[in-house]
TrEMBL record:
Statement: the UniProt record of this protein carries the keyword Kinase: no
Protein name: Sulfonate transport system substrate-binding protein
Superkingdom of origin: Bacteria
Record family assignment: Belongs to the bacterial solute-binding protein SsuA/TauA family.
Source organism of the structure: Paenibacillus eucommiae
InterPro entries registered for this protein in UniProt: ABC_SsuA_sub-bd (IPR010067), Solute-binding_3/MltF_N (IPR001638), SsuA/THI5 (IPR015168)
Solute-binding protein family 3/N-terminal domain location: 40-262
Compartments where found: Periplasm
UniProt KW keywords: Signal, Transport
Length: 332
């Protein structure tokens, strides 16, 4: 090989080497930029009086997630069905739902996992009627029109209450209405009964506009309310999931020691009477706990009942819908 060709090969080799180093540097820079991009955490409030509303007002999630290079986006839904639609379209990363919605949601392959338990009374799910209604029991509902948000925890409670009284869902006439539609229909006498949760139950009964026929308390039902996370978010950001539960625990601890201020916040946010809100808070046991065998059994019981009623088509194994590891990490 002559000297000219040797020099040419050497120059070519050096050029290739320089290009490779440049590409590697760009890749490294790209990787660095990607990791430094802010994550958006979509938190959804699922109606009613809840601790997420207080945490939002206090800015606790924003404070903690900013330290983790994440931003918070809030959304609000009236019930669990539209909420799960939001989760499927990636507009919800965290929220809370009832046990019935866990079952119907997973039966429809909604991409979420249960990560903690927030209560065991189903937010006072009840069937209410007008104070002067002749309906005195669940059995009296046969053939009657009942307003309820289909797929919601109140709908599931209604199905279970009917079954306990020897009735099927087909024995009554379900009128699909969200709470803001159901309330005026109920007050106008367009339906005979209303399957609903708090704060509506306490608000309407305290104003003598409704009477409880049965509730989760009167029927001794364990009706877990649970926190859920969108599966892809949980997989991509387990650290932020643990942080989310840590902040929620702060809300649980705070409300128990600051009932008066909590009532102020919720009364203002929900445009409700403060004394009524304080009563609701005193009657609600907010928790943030792992999924225990008892809670899993209660959700499994709901799944089995909904399979028997034909609401879901295939048996659901509840042990596959929850994961306590995020909760355990949040306690470290």
């Amino acid at each position: 090989m002559n000297k000219v060709n040797h020099r040419r090969l050497l120059k070519t080799g050096l050029l290739v080497l320089a290009l490779m180093i440049g590409l590697l540097s760009l890749a490294a820079c790209g990787k660095k930029d990607a990791s430094s991009e802010k994550v958006t955490v979509n938190i959804a409030i699922n109606g009613g009086l809840n601790l997420l509303t207080i945490a939002k007002n206090k800015g606790w999630f924003e404070e903690e997630f900013t330290k983790a290079n994440a931003t918070v986006q809030w959304n609000e839904f009236q019930s669990s069905v539209p909420l799960l639609e939001g989760l499927v379209s990636d507009r919800v990363d965290f929220s809370f739902i009832g046990d019935g919605t866990v079952v119907t949601g997973k039966a429809a392959n909604s991409p979420f996992t249960v990560i903690s338990v927030t209560g065991v009374e189903g937010n006072q799910n009840s069937v209410v009627v007008k104070p002067d209604s002749p309906i005195q029991s669940i059995a009296d509902l046969k053939g009657k029109q009942i307003a309820v948000a289909k797929g919601s925890s109140a709908h599931i409670f209604l199905i279970k209450a009917l079954q306990k009284n020897g009735l099927k869902e087909s024995d009554v006439n379900i009128v699909q209405l969200q709470p803001d539609e159901a309330n005026p229909a109920f007050q106008a006498g367009q339906v005979d009964a209303w399957g609903i949760w708090d704060p509506f139950v306490t608000t309407e009964t305290a104003a003598n506009r409704a009477r409880i026929v049965e509730s989760v308390k009167t029927m001794n039902f364990i009706a877990p309310a649970v926190m859920i996370g969108r599966d892809k978010f949980l997989k991509d950001h387990p650290d932020l999931t643990a942080l989310y539960l840590k902040v929620y625990q702060k809300a649980v601890d705070w409300v128990g020691q600051n009932l008066d201020e909590a009532a102020d916040i919720l009364a203002t946010e929900k445009k409700m009477d403060k004394a009524l809100v304080k009563t609701l808070l005193e009657n609600t046991h907010y928790i943030n706990e792992p999924i225990s065998p008892e809670i899993a059994d209660a959700i499994q019981s709901t799944a089995d009942i909904l399979l028997e009623s034909g609401t879901i088509k295939e048996k659901l194994d509840v042990s596959k819908v929850y994961d306590n590891s995020f909760f355990e990490e949040s306690r470290k």
